[in-house]
Design goal:
This protein is an alpha/beta fold. The protein has three domains: 166 residues, Thiamin diphosphate (ThDP)-binding fold, Pyr/PP domains (Rossmann fold, 3-Layer(aba) Sandwich); 156 residues, TPP-binding domain (Rossmann fold); 190 residues, Rossmann fold (3-Layer(aba) Sandwich). It is built from 23 helices and 20 strands. Strands 3-2-4-5-7-6 form a six-stranded parallel sheet, sandwiched between helices. The mean pLDDT is 95.
Length: 546
Amino acid sequence: MKKRSSDLFIRCLENEGVEYIFGLPGEENLDLLDSLSKSSIQFVSTRHEQGAAFMADVYGRLTGRAGVCLSTLGPGATNLATGIADANLDHAPLVAITAQAGLDRVHKESHQYVDIVECFRPLTKWNARIERASSIPEVIRKAFKISQTEKPGACHIEYPEDIAREVCEGKPLDPKTPRRGSPDQKSLLEAAELIDQSSRPIILAGNGVIRGRASDALLHFSKKTGIPVAHTFMGKGAVPSDYDLSLFTIGLQAHDYVSFGFDQADLIIAAGYDLVEYSPSRWNVDRNKKIIHVDFLPAEVDEFYQTAVEIIGDIQETLKRLSETVQVVHDTSTAKVLRNKILETAGRGIRDSRFPMNPDRVIHELREVMNPEDILISDVGIHKLWIARHFQAHQPNTVIISNGFAAMGIALPGAIAAKLIHPDRRVVSVSGDGGFLLNAQELETLVRLKLSVVNIVFRDNGYGLIQFKQEKTYGRSFGVSFGNPDFVKLAESFGVKGYQVDTANSFKKILNEALRLKGPSLIELPVDYRDTFQQLMEMGNFICPM
């Protein structure tokens, strides 16, 4: 039976298993919205398109299925760009849908028209304009397939308004997921031989381990071989932080203690490692490390990442088969010395009673209060470095950090998506005062959806990370200070419960109360980064403890 193409479009999205569409309504997507209103998909109307894209981004990262965001044409579409780019570089599956003017006016100067397909081409894995209603099933299936295939990323569909109201026939295509390839036996044997011959191997675990659901296989491989594991910011939780061969996080630009493990390693096993997170030029400065590349795709070409062996295929299967093939159990004593030194520095400021608060203590108390399965969403700023370094993850996908595109403003929208996906888990967003105000309008979305999310705002009245880098480079800072609203009153104006921390000893009590609250809350937390800056400066003078 013939129906509007917008009805077919929505049926195709339902067929892909879409649960939510995050976005804003517009004149040019009226037909699509009307069809959406009669579907099983929940439309989450946001207060800015960037917030919608960030929600889709985090949805994709947590579920492995493409999050979907929607906008109208022109300025609505361009507002999606930052979140789309973030998903693409962070390798989170996302499908963006933008409305467009009718095809009868896209060839000329026209109100609100810009070529969004061309605008988004460098920000996506694939994108296309629907020019015939009959192509809808193919375009949607292709967008989701490409978006969700390793390495996942963003795809974009442009949907002109005249095509949306066109009458057509058609049905969704079968959304089969292709099986990931198995690793090559010869590569496995070559890798196993290198591992057996090495004296100080180390594993670098990236976000691909989590995307590939390979955390258990990685932990088993490390235990069987005695090889320690360091993870990237986005690889947090790849192995539990209390595992005795976990060397925690690598990724600070400063030379942290974990960096000594890479300095002395003669073999790096890079599992699910995305170069976009942390350049190999920082851990393979002399270009002399032997590298085993374990990933779904061949290695990126980089002069600091010249691989000895590449094992291409399903990461989980690769690690299981390596566990069966490697013979040598390596000595763990030096790795445990290094781990103890890292833990020693991590505890430096946790009892500091100064106010404004030392971030070390804040992060320590956050970890004490939150359950292992609870989810922390970090915004981008200097606090992100300290969350990556000190907040310990016990499970995959419980600490979400953007470290590919690393876009400020992701925390609050991301926390909304996380709570929708996991309503039974407690969700906390942590932002700096700079990043929070980039998407503070989504507090209204949080209230409307009645989601119990705790938003912590680190207030230092400036762009702290840029200030540190300016002072380190030039001995002074410029253009990094700003004023702030009363965040408690701002929260309350949206209907959010606001808390003001006024002593170091009150934070933990307030956090516990906020986490018990039915409904959203915001905690304004003055912080003092001076000790953080000092620790970053000291890293250049650390002495290798091994």
